[in-house]
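Archive entry: two folds, one per protein. Generate the first.
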Amino acid sequence: MSTSSPSSQPRRFSRRWVECVADIDPDRYERMVRMTEARRTLKISPRLQELIYVAVDLQVAHLYPDGAEVHIVAAIDRGATVVEVVEAMEISAGLTYRSLSTSLAIVASTYGVTAADAATTDHQDLDLLRIWPDLGTAGERLLPEVLPSLIAYVSAPDREKTLSDEWRALITVAVLASPAISDDAAVGRATAWCRELGIEVEDVAQAIFCGSLIGTHSFTRGYPSLVAASRLDRDRYSLGIVD
């Protein structure tokens, strides 16, 4: 890591963590600039990209509200409506229920409970049940009263959707492929959905790329922490560790 002064080139970002990168690791900063420029070559809509970032940042296993707020503002600046942002949040919330779906299937199998026919659900076409089908089979047999109310709360199936099926599918596959979920079987179901809708393979790959960018949050959180730690009073915060 370089400890030299930051590049004389004007900074292209204003967020605090980026300032930290530029101050203590100017080489990384320049690499980030080049990656950002490369991202501008993506074919998928910048508005869709921002909605993907919102959905991933609001995944329960990740929950990065600072990033979500930045990307919500960016999405709106790129023409997204409040309703579209809410629908991206709905998609993210619904995809959280992998563990519930899987666990209920295990319980049904262990206790010999015959799963309900998927057709018995009132919401069989929901994106949520497309990805987690056991919620509509084992789930509705084991939790017939509460599960429909959860689905209604999370996915609001009675509302008319603003996002196109194509964008919903791309947001879905991006979130599922992100480190926040990373479920191979679910990615397969979502990819099949994208193909059914006629979405080009390049668009699917680019959506997945966007969903995977949260790996850089190690830097987003790490560099400010490094700056803060470097300013600590070593005597006050000593853990008794000898160099």
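Generate the second and append.
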Amino acid sequence: FLHLIFAVIGIVAAVWCIYLIASLSRNLSDPEMGEVDQRIRGDMLIIGLVALSTLLNGVPMAVAGVLLIRRKPRGLLWSNVYAAMSLSTKIALPFLWLMAPSNWVSNSPLQGFFDLAPLAIYPVITLIFLNRPAIREWAAASATIVSPA
């Protein structure tokens, strides 16, 4: 159930962020903005990529949530896909932030890792708890039972 809650929050936040970026980009067409305009556009691109990665991470998380609520073993596979995608994003984002034209984001990947570390707790817990032997045995037993989709 937590998968669905976090997925919905992430997807809504990502869509809202993308909407705000689109709205702001229409307002940045003033030729007098010059260098500031270029820095803001570069930051908006990075924020957009972060929002897109959040949106893409939310999809397998939502699918996993629905499958797990319906007690389908494939939910474990989707949970692992979500966790792997989420953790790889959290490793890559600090390096992406280094390319931001302004310095509102951290200036070192190490600081970026520390900033994102709390966000990595849920995917790590997902990997640990949903890959325990008892859960794996349940999935294997459930997969052998033929049930209607």
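Annotation attached to the second fold: The radius of gyration is 19 Å. Helices lie at 2-27, 34-69, 74-97, 109-116, 121-129, 133-144.
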